[in-house]
């Protein structure tokens, strides 16, 4: 009995901690430098949102560097987080695809446009053409000599552009010591079939970017370059003062600033007639870099919030019905031990849900299915124990002996079945993580957590509760209480 009471202390501590985490408005943990809030994360099939499958937009015969796909995945994740979408999921799906899930996203078109935008920023040499010719290319597509995977563009001389002379225009944007361009402007103008311009530098050399206000109330985009970019910019701007340095985003000319002075310190600003939104959009694009590989949307699915809420409501109803049936079955069939098992099952549910909020786990419909299945696994362990206890009681054992022997003889079956389930969960999780099958991944994760917690409740909680409640009962006088 002393051992039983000693076990009650850690069980009580674990339950109190689980209840604290499970509170709908849990204050979280904020002390000793720890700042952690607890909330229930719901997937897009429960709250609505967007799911998209992205694929590298290159020929199928072209080999893709795994590190480039890893960089692309990280950049997409940064862009998604910048959208303000909570609990977003970005994960690889094979060697050429990326799965993106945006729970709660209300503007699917905008989200997909931001995600798949290549964001390839290039500074091109336009010194061989006139200002008028450069001005005629703004917001049009051009060709450059930069190729993905080549760290430094090969030296090349930009050929003259055979376009008619138009009225004199002056660039609206200038480049001063501190600068780098980028924008979210898009165009429907087809790619030009004209000359190929030389790329002096790409946006990959930008290390920091931000929006600043001018004394006149305008906005400029300030940037800093890494050591390699600083040297490239220094050499080029020193030799081309007063000439045009074109700024190109995704092969579209977005500005044609003139080089006012040589930029030698790796810092500059992009000046222009920016609004606050335009300047911030440009800074955001630069901050999260350009994709090393262009991406295209293969499939996309939008789940409305109403449908998601309806799915959540039906899932809760199904869970309550299933849980109630299990509780009633255990209480009616196994009598007093069944009621004890129901208490242990309640502890199991509290602890498992606490883990979901603590990790945290994004709950989806398949994830809830995995949790419900793990409830069946937890009940299965109790059924095995109680049936073995019945057998020992029929053999004339005392109640205390029957509990210990029943548990010891049921344990190998419980252990083997649970470990085989965990192995299956591991395989499913690997499959879901490798091929981007988030449905399979969520199911396996919640099932695995539930199985591990059920082993704890079967080993510790159920056995402790049985001894605490049943040790002092005379079985011969109350056999019906045990369903015997």
Number of strands: 19
Number of domains: 3
- Order of strands across the biggest sheet? 12-13-17-9-16
Q: What percentage of residues falls in helices of 4 or more residues?
A: 40-55%
Write down the secondary-structure element order.
Answer: HEEEHEHEEHEHEEEEEEHEEEEHEHEHHH
N/C terminus separation: 25 Å
Shape: elongated
| Low-confidence runs | 149-174, 178-193
* CATH level-1 class of the largest domain: Mainly Alpha
> How would you describe the oligomerization state of the chains in this entry?
single chain
Question: What's the CATH H-level superfamily name of the largest domain?
Answer: Multidrug efflux transporter AcrB transmembrane domain
Backbone structural class: alpha+beta
What count of helical segments does DSSP give?
11
Instruction: Report on the biggest sheet.
Output: 5 strands, mixed
Level-2 CATH architecture of the largest domain:
Up-down Bundle
Mean pLDDT: 79
Report the C-alpha radius of gyration, rounded: 32 Å
- CATH fold descriptor of the largest domain: Multidrug efflux transporter AcrB transmembrane fold
């Amino acid at each position: 009995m002393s051992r039983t009471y000693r076990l009650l202390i850690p069980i009580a501590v674990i339950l109190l901690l689980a209840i604290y985490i499970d509170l709908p408005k849990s204050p979280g943990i904020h002390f000793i430098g720890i700042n952690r809030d607890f909330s229930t994360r719901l997937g897009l099939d429960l709250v609505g949102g967007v799911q998209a499958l992205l694929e590298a937009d290159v020929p199928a015969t072209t080999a893709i560097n795994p590190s480039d796909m890893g960089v692309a995945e990280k950049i997409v994740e940064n862009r998604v987080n910048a959208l303000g979408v909570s609990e977003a999921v970005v994960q690889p799906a094979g060697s050429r695809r990326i799965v993106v899930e945006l729970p709660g996203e209300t503007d699917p078109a905008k989200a997909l446009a931001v995600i798949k935008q290549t964001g390839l920023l290039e500074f091109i040499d336009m010194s061989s053409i006139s200002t008028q010719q450069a001005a005629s290319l703004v917001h049009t597509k051009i060709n450059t000599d930069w190729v993905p995977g080549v760290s430094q563009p090969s030296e090349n001389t930009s050929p003259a552009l055979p376009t008619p002379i138009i009225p004199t225009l002056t660039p609206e944007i200038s480049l001063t010591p501190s600068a780098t361009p980028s924008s979210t402007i898009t165009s429907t103008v087809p790619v030009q079939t004209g000359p190929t311009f030389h790329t002096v530098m790409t946006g990959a050399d930008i290390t920091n970017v931000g929006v600043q206000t001018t004394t006149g109330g305008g906005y400029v985009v300030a940037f800093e370059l890494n050591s390699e970019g600083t040297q490239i910019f220094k050499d080029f701007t020193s030799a081309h003062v007063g000439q045009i340095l074109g700024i190109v985003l995704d092969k579209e000319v977005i500005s044609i600033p003139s080089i006012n002075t040589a930029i030698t310190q790796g810092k500059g600003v992009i000046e222009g007639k920016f609004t606050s939104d335009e300047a911030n959009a440009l800074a955001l694009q630069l901050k999260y870099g350009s994709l090393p590989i262009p991406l295209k949307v293969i499939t996309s699915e939008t789940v409305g919030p109403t449908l998601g809420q309806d799915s959540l409501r039906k899932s809760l109803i199904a869970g309550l019905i299933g849980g109630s049936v299990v509780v009633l079955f255990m209480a009616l069939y196994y009598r007093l031990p069944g009621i004890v098992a129901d208490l242990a099952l309640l502890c199991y549910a509290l602890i498992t849900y606490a883990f979901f909020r603590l990790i945290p786990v994004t709950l989806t419909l398949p994830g809830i299915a995995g949790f419900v299945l793990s409830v069946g696994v937890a009940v299965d362990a109790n059924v095995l124990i109680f049936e073995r206890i019945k057998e020992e009681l029929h053999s004339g054992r005392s109640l205390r002996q029957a509990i210990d022997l029943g548990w010891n003889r049921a344990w190998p079956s419980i252990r083997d079945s649970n470990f085989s389930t965990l192995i299956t969960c591991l395989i499913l999780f690997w499959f879901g993580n490798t091929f981007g099958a988030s449905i399979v991944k969520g199911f396996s994760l919640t099932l695995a957590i539930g199985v591990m917690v059920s082993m704890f409740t079967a080993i510790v909680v159920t056995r402790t509760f049985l001894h605490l409640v049943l040790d002092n009962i005379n079985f011969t006088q109350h056999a019906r209480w045990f369903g015997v």
